[in-house]
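Box 4.2: Ligand-aware structure prediction
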Amino acid sequence: MSFKAPRGTRDILPSEIEKWQYVEGVLRKLCREYGYSEIRTPLFEETGLFARGVGEGTDIVEKEMYTFKDRAERSLTLRPECTASVVRSFLEHKLFNEPQPQKFYYIGPMFRYDRPQAGRYRQFHQFGVEAFGTSSPVLDTEVIAMSNDFFQRIGLDDLNLEINSVGCKFCRPAYNQLVLDYYKNKLEKLCTDCHIRYERNPLRILDCKNEKCLSLVQDAPSLADNLCEECATHFSSVLSFLDSLNIRYSVNHRLVRGLDYYTKTAFEFVSAELGAQSSLGGGGRYDNLVEICGGPPTPGVGVAMGLERVILALDKRGFDPSLYRDKRVFVALAGDDKLQHEGLLITQELRRAGISAELDFMGRSLKSQMKFAGKNNFSLVIILGEKELKEKAVLLRDMQNGEQEEIKRSKLIDKIKEKLKRQGKTTEEA
Ligand code: AMP
């Protein structure tokens, strides 16, 4: 019998993991700089949380959830996204009593019964942030700026940031009605999904990508013309803060996003290179969500990015993670097995000093050990032979410039630290 990973899921093999760890490393560092703390919530929650939090009429809740009964007949759901879980946790632990804003981030798998294709999976990974406790447009801007910084840092610097305001509970109902009125006599021209959206969530018709629906959307009423004063002011403040940070964006009044909970700001980072699955990440403000989930009125704003898509976009650029690898030391042995003892001692000493180091186990010739070290991008090679052993020394070869010198064993660690520092980054900083 041969088993395969379930449809829509995939293994991340060691040959790929370096890219993931690089991306996650950049994200964690960014979160430290912006003052967001990690939160880890369960992979499954009570089904009702998502029905309430994500919204009954959404594609996610209607069609995409992995819902099951446990042995005690409780209805549970593998999380399709993490915002509802973070809100649940925020409420359960009464974090609204702590000094505000409370700022969180998460990295982990999400599960949606989506139609699998390149960039779309049934188990995929999201990085996201959620910040609670202030309706200041500066916080919207911070979340967008942080996402923008991330994409810049990893070299995805030509994404398009689309932004819109989707209004609030005061101005949206009237706008919803305008949309219903507009499409009332055009229903037969809409796709079948939009027939359902018309009944349940008319705003979503506006961002349907179906050709039939796209041709009608041009003349649909614009939410921009129907925002209440507070939403309009909030939106223009966010845009002016983005301007002052020199963050480029395009206002897209058709952007509504697939989740019901957004209010005011909604945004998306779109790649021109990824075809149908072009959205790398998106988010927005959700000022009613905490209340909807049973808590005190608490404004919030967040973003979620799809890490598979980020990595696909990096692959398209020919990204080479080995360039970002920890600077490492390879210990090569030039002689017989007697040298293994000393080689092992040196390797352990380096590791204890925080320097990533590997030893040759294969009994290869010095030439093929050097080839191996070059191919695997080691920064430095320590060469230990009979002569060096006798003289309590080693040869240290700098793989970047080919320089080689003899170093006394007692000076070895300091010398290596100094060399790694000169090469760019130390192991501790990486
Ligand atoms: P959402 O939670 O729907 O706002 O999605 C946020 C981001 O998650 C999207 O921009 C995608 O990058 C990613 N994403 C959503 N669904 C999937 C999926 N089925 N497979 C891979 N990535 C996804």
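In the box above, the bound molecule is adenosine monophosphate. The first helix runs from residue 14 to 34.
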